[in-house]
Write a structure and sequence with these properties.
The complex is a heterodimer.
Chain A: H1 2-46, H2 66-82, H3 90-105, H4 107-112, H5 118-133, H6 144-148, H7 151-163, H8 169-172, H9 175-194, H10 198-211, H11 221-239, H12 248-251, H13 258-270, H14 284-299, H15 305-318, H16 326-342, H17 344-357, H18 366-369, H19 376-405, H20 411-418, H21 433-450, H22 463-485, H23 488-491, H24 495-507, E1 513-516, E2 532-535, H25 541-549, H26 551-562, E3 567-572, H27 573-582, H28 589-599, E4 603-608, E5 612-617
Parallel strand pairs in A: 1-2, 1-3
Antiparallel strand pairs in A: 3-5, 4-5
Chain B: H1 8-25, H2 30-49, H3 57-81, H4 87-112
The chains are: A mainly alpha, B mainly alpha.
Amino acid sequence: MVRTTEAASASITGRLRISGVLRLARQRSAIHVELVVGALALWALSLPGTDVGAMTDIGLVSVLPAGYFVALAMVTVSFCLAVRAPQGRGLLLTAHLLLLIAMLHTTPAILYGTLRYAWAWKHVGIIDYIVRHGGVDLNISELTAYQDWPAFFSFMALIVKAAGFGSALAFASWAPAIDNLLFAGGVMFVVRSLTSDRRLAWLTVWIFCATNWVGQDYFSPQATNYFLYLVAIGICLRWLGPAETPSVATLRRWVRSERLARGLQDLMVRGRPVAQPSTMTRRAPAFAAIVMVIAAASVTSHQLTPFMLILSLGALVVFQLCAVRGLPVLIALMTAAWVFYMTIGFLKGNLYWIVASIGSLNIGSSTLSNLGSASPGHAFVAQISRLLTLLLGVLALGGLLRRRRHGHVELAAVLLAVAPSLMVWGNAYGGEVLFRIYFFALPSLAFLAAGLVFPARRFGRSWMSGVAAAGMCLALLAGMLIAYYGNERMYHISKDEVRSAQYLVTHAPRGSTLVGLTTDYPWGYRNYEYYTYLQISTLAPTDIRKLLADPVARTAGLVARASNGHEYVVFSRAQAADIEMTGGMPAHSPQRLEAALRASPRFAEVYRGPDAQIFKLLPAGGKR
Amino acid sequence: MTAQGRPWPLVIAGSAAALTLAMALGGHGPVRGVLALWFFLTCPGMAIAGLLDVRDVLAEVVIAIALSVAIGMLLTLVMVLTHTWSTGVATGILVGLTLLGAGAQAWRRQVRR
């Protein structure tokens, strides 16, 4: 009887305790819910009235209202305090993450009302081509690479047609938000293979979003391929390993020192992903097949991602973290077959620099090396980008050392951070390879940096840890806002610039030559193969100087040489912004050229808006 | 919650049917647009991922999206390279694949009960 009473009393006490804990948890969660809702409201209310036309060379941050920054800080601090809870709160943390992604990646689309970034317009143009022709032209002279790696564009063309859209413009503006959502899911998928500590996984995703400044999330094949890469890596880490760890005797065939061989073996054993089964499961062939399907899509839709996949999978195979050793070899064969059989048109025009850059240390880049001619604002943005990258590198190193001190060694994270950097000897990738290496190493760098706050399960629950995480994330986000939004003055395509481009595609006859200053214009978003495109900033510096010395005759000569039909010269705000920011042409070149053409009887102004002007070259004799 | 208890077969089969109907009716509007984006980006992959016994919703969803994108890319790639492009045929193949996968998932659930 006494026992029964004691049991009942204990049960009631237990229930009371549980309900007390639940109530406390609800109260604590309620604060975070209020902060998220408050941040959402503040963000939404702060955006109207933002004057994007007043943007300076440091980008969108120069015009964003204070409410935006306060809202971003609120959601970041709330997340960092909420993430400390060892269990649960998945929905709450998801809400925080969704808001962060929305604030970072829908704000430009909301403010501009147009598709951001000229290259996204080109991608819309390729889709338009496939919609109209139902095929590709592997020998076309304009934008050959897109026709040679067409899988992304053909898939988007299917969606455009099946959805009944007029073009991909119907949804392309929202691609950065959708892509970042996919990246967040992909990073979480990979990281949960590396650790069972959910706090570490969540903070990794947050840091990833706060440091993904390289801008490869716009409507493009590379963004979609990046997600495919993450999923392929995640599958390998979770279901396709590990291979049997080699014995010390085997390892000594490769390293002379026995101590080193033992250390290497220990690293391989301790560094295994937590989610990996001890042996390959019976479903492994199905997962390997899925990786091959994903790789095939990647090989046929993007030039760089398959190589990154080969490097990363190769590193996992070498260190026995992926048991399907043939995967990187098969993907390499598939890539070689595609490149040498299907992309002859592209290789014809580009083989010389591809071969030249193999084996060289390709660390030069237009953005890194030409800061001497950049405007002070643009140079500041570039310096902040470097500092942000450096800061993340330091945090990642600190996190790696701290987790190692507490007995955690995630070998896969280290390998996936290092493997993409081998690409520096493979290809300059138009001067962009360093940015792409950072992009592919980013999930692992973010994971290692998060390890600084959560080095082991017993750490990271105190307020101080939350404050440290918030400090770290706020510092990274501050850099991100400048680095990511820093080029917006030239990436922003205004409504008037879009109207002028619409004028061109409706008035310029097939065969016309369209001349501009830079690529920052919606060139070729419709009927792109009808026209020949020329950008003055791509001419040799001596030719640019000659053109500026005698603008009318040289511009007329330029277009007349290139075309047998009608010729148009386009000036626009974003192109002028590019020249001012990067120093790609002498100062005030756009204004001087425009004034000279306007004063000349050889050119007639056929479109004039606040942000764009179009001139048409008149036939000899000056008749309109 | 694991992925096993979720009504994926019903959702993806319903999505396939709804898109087919929307395309047959031929209207142009946001509903058809959202339906097409949803179907092509998730459903064919979900039809296959649901057969893998992944038991983790996040893993199942990311694999489903990646597979949908990859299958869509490869199918349309073949069509553009062979100049056999047809929106109806491509959609039909993907709808068929989706219904097949959804049917297999539903059958497996019945057998396991």
